[in-house]
Structure formats: structure tokens, C-alpha cells
UniProtKB/TrEMBL annotation:
Segments forming domain Mur ligase central: 114-226
Lineage: Archaea, Methanobacteriati, Methanobacteriota, Methanomada group, Methanobacteria
InterPro entries: Mur-like_cat_sf, Mur_ligase_C_dom_sf, Mur_ligase_cen, MurD
GO cellular component terms attached to this protein's record: cytoplasm
Pfam family, one: Mur_ligase_M
Lineage: superkingdom: Archaea
Protein localization: Cytoplasm
Record-given protein name: Cell wall biosynthesis protein Mur ligase family
PANTHER family in the record: UDP-N-ACETYLMURAMOYLALANINE--D-GLUTAMATE LIGASE
Gene3D superfamilies: Mur-like, catalytic domain, NAD(P)-binding Rossmann-like Domain
A molecular-function term among this protein's GO annotations: ATP binding
Pathway named in the protein's UniProt entry: Cell wall biogenesis; peptidoglycan biosynthesis
A GO BP annotation: cell division
Length: 498
């Protein structure tokens, strides 16, 4: 094929690169000049050019000479000149589904796929740790490598990593799911579905849910949390469900042990009509308790319970239950899973302790949805708390009313920053929205332009014995860069205000 890829954004780049690798002639076009893209994107485009992709940038009306096939990026507006030219041309159309099938054709090992609104990254890495403990060579693709996982997957294919690996463990965010919906998964997991990225789906929760539900169709074995029981009921009556014991229907703390006894005695824990919970977990000091009852790939009934050493905190517990269900459904044994959970040391920027700054314990966390923020705040309990907050808008506008209100209930001080890592500019409005939402809070409220300034002010408005917690999505855009800014600001604050 002679292909033109219209749009050099997050969808167009991986499509163009993989088509070129597959032996097709590829030209990628965009009205933006290469200098208008973020530096990381410029590097990717230059790499693509060195591999043989023709860059046709700064062009509003691309030439179609010699072109027989088009990929039209989903973000290209209908009023764009290129859109009109393409629609009037008689070209074959290369779709996202075609791309997914092409990617799948290059991956001849079993694939574990993990999607959801929160918890994808930590679950992906926990599953990887368990498989590595079992001796597998694991090809892992997650947003810890790069924010755009579709580009991580394509890069791995081009480098031949699947051929050197025994199994693939792929984090599948909504953008990657849009491109990779035709991947065939040995085990797929849908962790949860919460309101997020709706601005990319015309404000429709239904459309967002449909995007996530690709995994139910394409998974040989399907794992999901009880939060999704109604969503998956028709699509996957064979779903394997997991939950923390506290989230079970009609849960009573005084009867916690009875739930584990039920599972151990082959009794069923009903969560809905015709649906039962197959894996349950509970936190313990330095450990996690898990009980299970399910049918594996050979239709053998498996049941039991165990306690594993586990040194994580907060939302990691629920993700550990998910990782156990995924790896056990694949066929790994309990002892390997226990060892893998014990080996897991957590992830950077996920409830990560970064040090003591003049008597203040400082943690950073990339949570930005209500559910993740609640887990992080609950873990810190009744401490005197200073929140250092990102600009909560990245390339996606987020409603900050409930988020700001929640944080105001926990915080003694809220320092909201305005720098947007995606657009590389200060935008104070999202910071003000967060603080305004905490209308009934007695917290001291402070606005800063940059993260360095915010970290300095967090020191200024705190005292020894306080805890500083950073929250927000900018960390996932540039983890190392944001961490450096936070540490720089904290150190300057310690010099300036002590």
C-alpha cells in the first residue's frame, strides 16, 4: 500500500510507524510544523523519518499523488482542508481495527491486557513481577515507560521484543484501546470504569464505557471487579469477579472472617443475579489475605485461601487481588503468586515516600480521580496534611468540583499549581477551580504558578510533623521532570522558610 496518515498526533504516529515497519510506503501529514510539537514528539517524528516514513508537515492541503490508502486520525476536524480532500478522494481506508489486527499479527506470544479508569499501571507491574518470579521473560508495556502506551507497543514490535519474550503484559488506557481493540488476549482484566476523559467522548459515559468494553470481547479469560458487574453481565456471563471484602454487598466488619470461610468451604458469595465473587482480599499489617474459588482454563474448580507478605499501601491492596486473579486464571500456582506479591516494591509516583524535609514527611502520588484520591487520603488518616496539587487538566478538561471538595475535607493547607506539562504553559484557572470547590473547607488555600513555587509554598505553610502529599496527573506526563521540580522547590523552601 501507499498510505497517507492524516494527523501526526497520538493516533497517527504509531499507525504510520507500524505500517512503515510492515513494508508499506507511508507519508504522515499535519498542518503543524515539526517545531510546533512537544520535544518528545519531535524526537519520535525524526526517528520515524530515519526509518523511512515521509514527513509532510506544515501542510494544510496534502498531495495525494500515488496514494491508494488513507488513515484519518480521529482528532482531525471535519472542517480541516485535509479532511475535505480525503473525503472527496476515492481511497481505501485503513481503520483502527485494521491497525489492531496488524499489531496483533506481530505478537505471537500470549498477551495479558489490563484496562480500567484507575489502577492499570500498578496492576500491570504487579502482574509482571509475578510472572518474572515464575521465570518468564516478560514484555511489559505501561505508561511508566511512556505516557502513550500505543507507541511503547509499536516500538517494542519494531525492536523485536515479542520474539525474545515468553509473555506480554500490556496496560491498555483508553487511547491505546481505541487503536488496539483487535488484540487477542489470553487474559483480559477490566479493573473499573469511572467518569474520566469524557471530553474526548462528547461527554458520553456510554461511549467511554464502550471503548473500555473491547476487552470483554477479545479476552479468552475475563477478569473484572464487582464494580463492573452490571456493565459486563450480558457480554461476559463467564466473568471472574474480584473484590476487597469491605466492598462486598451487605458487608459487615464484624463478620469479615465469615466471607473467607464461605469461599474456603465452596460456598458462593452472590454479588448479583447469576453472579458470584471469585476472589476476595483484605489488608493486613505487612500482608494481604486472599481467598478464591473459580474455574481455570481447563474448567477445573480451584479454591483456597492464603496470606502473602505484602509491603504496599492504599489502593495497592485491591490491585493485588486483581493481579492474583489474573495470574491464577492464567495458570500460575499460589506459591509463585505469594512470592511475586512479596517481591513487589511499588512504583514511583504511586504513594511514593520521597523523604523528610525539615521534619515534614513528603509523599507523591499521581491519583487524580475521586476513587484514587480517596484511597490516598484515607491511608494518611488524621495527619496534619498539606496538599501540593497539580494542574488537574492535561490535554483533557476535568470537572474539579467534587475533587476539590473532597480534598478540602482532609487538608489543612491546599497549594494548587497552574503549570500544564502537556501545553508547557501556566494556566491558573484549573488551580482556582480546585480551591473554589473546597468552599466549606477551613484549609489555607494558596495558588502557585509552577510546581517549584508550589513546593516552596508547601514548606512555608507547613510545620515540622506535618505531611505533604502531592496529587495530580501531571506526574504521568513527565515523572522525572516533575519529581525534580518538586524536590527543587522543597529544598528551596527549607532554605528560605526555616
Amino acid at each position: 500500500m501507499n498510505v497517507i496518515v492524516v494527523g501526526a498526533g497520538n493516533a497517527g504516529r504509531p499507525v504510520a510507524r507500524l505500517l512503515n515497519y510492515a513494508g508499506h510506503m507511508v507519508k504522515i501529514t499535519d498542518p503543524k510544523n515539526i517545531e510546533d510539537f512537544h520535544m518528545d514528539v519531535q524526537k519520535t517524528l525524526r526517528l520515524m523519518e530515519s526509518e523511512g516514513v515521509e514527513l509532510d508537515l506544515g501542510v494544510f492541503e496534502p498531495s495525494l499523488d500515488g496514494i491508494d490508502t488513507v488513515y484519518l486520525s480521529p482528532t482531525v476536524p471535519e472542517n480541516a482542508p485535509a479532511y475535505k480532500i480525503i473525503k472527496e478522494a476515492n481511497l481505501n481506508v485503513f481503520t483502527n481495527d485494521d491497525f489492531g489486527r496488524l499489531a496483533d499479527s506481530f505478537i505471537d506470544i500470549d498477551i495479558i491486557g489490563i484496562t480500567g479508569s484507575v489502577g492499570k499501571t500498578s496492576t500491570t507491574h504487579m502482574v509482571t513481577e509475578i510472572f518474572r518470579t515464575a521465570g518468564y521473560q516478560v514484555w511489559i508495556c505501561s505508561s511508566m515507560t511512556q505516557n502513550l502506551v500505543s507507541e511503547v507497543i509499536v516500538d517494542g514490535i519494531i525492536k523485536g521484543i515479542p520474539k525474545k519474550s515468553d509473555i506480554a503484559v500490556l496496560e491498555l488506557p483508553h487511547g491505546t484501546a481505541g487503536l488496539m481493540a483487535e488484540l487477542k488476549l489470553k487474559v483480559g482484566a477490566l479493573l473499573n470504569i469511572y467518569e474520566e476523559h469524557l471530553s474526548e467522548f462528547g461527554g458520553s459515559m456510554e461511549r467511554y464505557t464502550q471503548r473500555k468494553m473491547f476487552i470483554a470481547k477479545n479476552s479468552e479469560n475475563f477478569i473484572t471487579s464487582i464494580h463492573c458487574k452490571d456493565t459486563v453481565k450480558e457480554a461476559r456471563p463467564d466473568a471472574i469477579f474480584y473484590a476487597m471484602v469491605k466492598d462486598l454487598p451487605r458487608y459487615e466488619p464484624s463478620k469479615k472472617s465469615e466471607y473467607f470461610d464461605k469461599v474456603a468451604n465452596f460456598e458462593e458469595i452472590a454479588i448479583g443475579e447469576g453472579q458470584v465473587c471469585n476472589f476476595i482480599g483484605d489488608s493486613a499489617k505487612g500482608a494481604i489475605d486472599i481467598a478464591y474459588k473459580f474455574r481455570n482454563r481447563s474448567d477445573e474448580l480451584k479454591k483456597g485461601s492464603f496470606q502473602s507478605e505484602f509491603h504496599m499501601m492504599s489502593y495497592y491492596y485491591e490491585n493485588a487481588v486483581a493481579a492474583t486473579a489474573i495470574t491464577m486464571a492464567y495458570g500460575l500456582n499460589v506459591e509463585i503468586i505469594k512470592e511475586g506479591l512479596a517481591n513487589f516494591k511499588g512504583l514511583s509516583v504511586h504513594m511514593e515516600y520521597i523523604g523528610d524535609y525539615n521534619g515534614r514527611e513528603v509523599y507523591i502520588d499521581a491519583s487524580y480521580l475521586i476513587e484514587g484520591i480517596t484511597a490516598a487520603l484515607d491511608f494518611l488518616g488524621d495527619r496534619s496534611l498539606v496538599l501540593l496539587l497539580d494542574n488537574f487538566d492535561t490535554s483533557t478538561y476535568r470537572d474539579k468540583k467534587e475533587t476539590g471538595k473532597l480534598m478540602g475535607q482532609y487538608a489543612d493547607v491546599m497549594v494548587a499549581t497552574g503549570f500544564n506539562e502537556v501545553y508547557q504553559r501556566v494556566d491558573i484557572e484549573p488551580a482556582q477551580e480546585l480551591l473554589d470547590a473546597a468552599v466549606d473547607s477551613k484549609a489555607v488555600k494558596v495558588i502557585a504558578g509552577t510546581m517549584e513555587e508550589g513546593a516552596e509554598l508547601a514548606i512555608k505553610h507547613s510545620k515540622p510533623g506535618d505531611t505533604i502529599l502531592h496529587l495530580g496527573p501531571q506526574l504521568m506526563q513527565d515523572p522525572e521532570g516533575i519529581m525534580e521540580k518538586i524536590v527543587t522547590g522543597l529544598e528551596e523552601g527549607c532554605k528560605k522558610y526555616e
